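One-letter codes give the sequence; backbone shape is given numerically. An example follows:

. . .
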Amino acid sequence: VQLQASGGGLVQAGDSLRLSCAASGRSLGRYVLGWFRQAPGKEREFIARIYWSTGSIHYADFVKGRFTASRDNAKTTMYLQMNSLKPEDTAIYYCAARGLVQTEYDFWGQGTQVTVSS
């Protein structure tokens, strides 16, 4: 699976941003796609996952309704709508994919930088 993340940028606190992750290479029906982020000096953090075949979505607790993941099956693209952005959301955002029965994500996109100024 090849993944291409895009949509990052520099925004102000309180703004919104939508990230995209275009997937290609394989049928996604047996995959789980996820969003992660990594801030400078911090470990990579899970944000959300989508079970592609069913559309079921799970979120990390910290999301608290500010972020919404979605997918467009026809475009094989996953999105992350981020609202009410805070400076602490500044990070490189990655999309990744793993098989349904796997726990580790094998495929990673290149990441897109999100910077939130106060």
Summary: The radius of gyration is 13 Å.
